[in-house]
User: Fold this.
Amino acid sequence: MMIKKYGIPGLTAVAFLLISTLAGAAEERWTFDGNIHNNSLAVSPDEKTAVASYSERSDVVVYDLAAGKVRKVLKGYVTPRNALFSPDGKAVYLSDSSLGVVRKISTGTLDVETTLPLGAGAFGTAISRDGQRLYVNNEAASILSVYDLTHNRPVSVVTGFAQPRQGIKISPDGKTVYVTNFKGDKITLVDAVTGDIRGEITGFSKLRAISVSADGRTLYAANSGSNTIAVVDTQKRAITATIPVGQDPYGAALTPDNRYVYSGNLGDNSLSVIDTAAGKVVATVTGLDAPRQAIVFSKDGARAWVLNKDLSIAVVDLKQNRVTATIKSPPQA
Assistant:
């Protein structure tokens, strides 16, 4: 279902009231959804800057990747949920579900440039390839908000979800937004332009992170309830295989060449390495601390940056499949 524009630019009065009410609730309760835990790691397009967050910490850490050290600690958060850079790398967008906002932060100065009010529960985020639209999951209101980043105003609110959390991806052709529903254990397909719901994919078990192949034909999803990675045919909208991995998988990160999927296994502090052609685990990376969704690959496919629980970053050599360095985190604020 789509709530379209009427009166209030980009939002109906109903949607505006809903978001305002939830934002007020966040202020009163302070930690709005602290029982839900996740982490996030974003790396700038030039691979010089990394932004790391963990929902149990009120600070967000910015790293200088080239120097291998902390650049700055950003304070003033409650339950930071997701970080992602704009395609041009000039800004990073940070969501906080308790504050009910997404903050646009300058990569150069690290100052907040804009604050977008999304309502308490603002969680996972995705940005269009042209950098003009931001899609924001709201797990509390079970909605998807669409923002025009050129004019910093809301475009629409899509309803019909069931606790959409961190998992949200845009198809490579930019036409479809894949939204995970934690409560419903399904993925909803949303038309990226019109906001209409086009269908759903079911059969998951405690659905976490997702990745989409470069050709858009295959989706990989982490099932923390069954310790598997689901392989999905996006044309058939059906699960075609499930691959056993480590304990409590949250991550399902696809390498740039699409040859491997790395599963972040919270339960046994490991990464399972899946050969996508063979459809099985071919290696395991150890020496991590509670890895979740926060796995990012370098463009050349040589390394991965994996976030540990203390917000330190493990550097993984993808040829050797082992941790070769760790960028230390600052003490918790």
Residues 54 and 121 are 15 Å apart (CA to CA). Confidence is low (pLDDT under 50) at residues 1-29.
